[in-house]
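The pair is quoted verbatim as follows:
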Amino acid sequence: MSRPAVGRGLALPGPETLDELGAMLRLAGVAVRRSFTAPYSYVPEFVDQFRFALKIAIFPLVITSFALSFGPAGIQASNFLGLFGALDRMGGIYVLIVVRFFSPLVTAIVVAGVVGTAMCADLGARRVREEVDALSVLGIDTVKSLVVPRLLAIVAICLLFNVFALLAGVAGATLVVVQNHAPLGPFFSAFFSSATTLELAASFLKCAIYGVMIAAVCCYKGINASGGAEGVGRAVNQAVVVAFLMIGAIDYVFTQILLATNPLLSEVR
C-alpha cells in the first residue's frame, strides 16, 4: 500500500517536475504559516537543528568565503587595478564582489550542500523507518514537528552565515591589499563610501529567500523518500541538485529585479 506524500496534496497539475515544484512551494507555505500558530512545541527541535547546522557548516563557510574573496576575485582585481595604480578602487569593487554577490551565494551553496543534505538524509531515514507514518498515526502534525523547525533553523542560519561570509570576504580583501603593499585606509574609505544599506538589506533578504527554498526542497525530498537506503541517497542527490539550480535561478531573478527597481545601484560610485 503506497503512502501519501507530504506536501503533494495541492501540487500543480502537469509534468512531474512542475508537480514537485508546486508541492515544494505548497510545503514551504504551509510550514511558514504553521510556524506562527500556537502551540510552539517545535522550539526545542529548532534550537537543536540550529546548533547542529552551526557546528557542521561554520568552518566550510568561512574558509570558502575567504578563499573566493582572496583568490579568484582579489588577485585578479588587484593585478588589473595595479596596472593603473588604482588599488584604492578595490574598495568599491568589493562592495559588488562581497556584499552583492559572493556573500549570499556562498552562504546558500554551503548551507544547501552541508546543512540541507544532512537534514534531507535525516528525514529520509525517518521516512524509510516509518517514523513519519508513526507520528501521523499518533495525530502529530508532521509538518509542524519536522519541517517547521528545520525551515526556521535554515533561514536563521543563512542570515547569521551571511554576516560571517561578509566578514570573511572583507578579511580576504584586506589580505589582498596588504599583499600588494598598499595602504588600507583608501581601501576601506572606498568600500564604506560605495556601500549602501540597500545592498546590505538586499543581501540579507536574498539569504532569507535562499533559506526558505533550501528548506522546502530538502525537507520535501527527505520526507517523501522511499526505497530504503538507496532511496534516501537518491533523495539527497536530487535535493542538492534542485537546490543548486534554484539558487542560480533565484540569484539571477533577484538581482535583475533589484537593479531594475533601484537604478542607483548600477551607477559608478
Summary: The helical segments are 16-35, 43-82, 90-128, 131-137, 142-179, 184-194, 197-223, 228-261. The chain has eight helices and no strands. The chain has one domain: 41-257.
